[in-house]
Specification:
Blueprint: H1 2-5, H2 8-22, E1 36-43, E2 70-73, H3 75-78, E3 87-92, E4 104-112, E5 133-137, H4 138-141, E6 152-159, E7 168-174, E8 177-183, E9 193-198, E10 203-210, E11 213-216, E12 225-230, E13 237-244, E14 253-255
Parallel strand pairs: 1-5, 2-4
Antiparallel strand pairs: 1-6, 2-5, 3-4, 3-6, 7-8, 7-14, 8-11, 9-10, 9-12, 10-11, 12-13
Bound molecules: 2-acetamido-2-deoxy-beta-D-glucopyranose.
């Protein structure tokens, strides 16, 4: 699982080199990983209300389109928020609690499973580094196993995220601070870096704030805004031109007509 533990920041050094040598890798598609073994638990109840407002900043998961097919990732996989938005197929494997036929479910990472440092990694401290662990929403867990099991062995693999429509940008902040939550990302689902461009500015690098949120301390009011995003997983580069019209305002969500693959 080396590709999880490498931070995107480290990977970016490589990206810069690749870009300089070969220009942008347009059209690089995210490929599924091979299957690996891990364990899964669940949190919250069947309403999945506990999964809302997680550490990726996606807020209400019904409004942002992720629904209940979600999981919180262990510390290593969450990777300071760079794991947000990644997608996994999960099936229960090798336990009497697995449902017949070992059905698959697909989840999006929307939260951090916080490590409990006072518990052993093999007994309750599932989310401590370097362990790979999925703390699924209860409805997602109930698609693969009897919830009374509490914890089950699984097979999992990373898969491309299938999204309807384009990448969405939810604006927060104030006149001098633009904080953008990025949702509905297809392909690898994750983001390595992001830039914003006002119609009267050059590209401005945005810094990672938390989860899937990026920021710039620049006044961009009254300008239509474009965003450039690079994928963590594929280094694909995408530009969403003039996603936000010049009369954009805080609290609004703007959807691009492009997405990662
Ligand atoms: C962490 O584990 C300890 C020991 O089992 C337990 O008492 C405590 O409630 C746990 N903390 C959380 C936040 O779950």
């Amino acid at each position: 699982m080396a590709f999880f533990s490498l931070s995107c920041k480290l990977r970016l050094l490589g990206v810069a080199t690749v870009m300089a040598m070969t220009a942008a890798r347009v059209g690089a598609r995210f490929q599924p990983s091979s299957w690996s073994l891990a364990y899964a638990t669940f949190y919250g109840d069947e309403s999945a209300s506990e999964t809302m407002g997680g550490a990726c900043g996606y807020g209400n998961l019904f409004n942002t389109g992720y629904g209940t097919d979600t999981a919180a990732l262990s510390t290593t996989m969450f990777n300071d928020g760079y794991g947000c938005g990644t997608c996994y197929q999960i099936r229960c494997y090798g336990s009497p609690h697995c449902y017949r036929g070992s059905p698959l479910t697909t989840v999006t990472a929307t939260n951090l499973c916080p490590p409990n440092w006072s518990q052993d990694s093999n007994n309750g401290g599932w989310c401590k580094p370097p362990r790979v662990h999925f703390d699924m929403s209860k409805p997602a867990f109930m698609q693969i196993a009897d919830w009374k099991a509490g914890i089950v062995p699984i097979m999992y693999r990373r898969v491309p995220c299938i999204r309807d429509g384009g990448i969405r940008f939810q604006f927060q902040g104030n006149g001098y601070w633009l904080l953008v939550y990025v949702t509905n990302v297809g392909g690898g689902g994750d983001i390595a870096s992001m830039w914003v461009k006002g119609c009267q500015t050059d590209w401005i690098g945005m810094s990672h704030n938390w989860g899937a949120a990026y920021q710039t301390f620049t006044s961009l009011g009254g300008q239509s805004l474009s965003f450039k995003i690079t994928s963590c997983s594929t280094q694909e580069i995408i530009i969403a031109w003039n996603v936000a019209p010049s009369n954009w305002y805080m609290g609004m969500t703007y959807e691009a007509n492009v997405n990662l693959h």
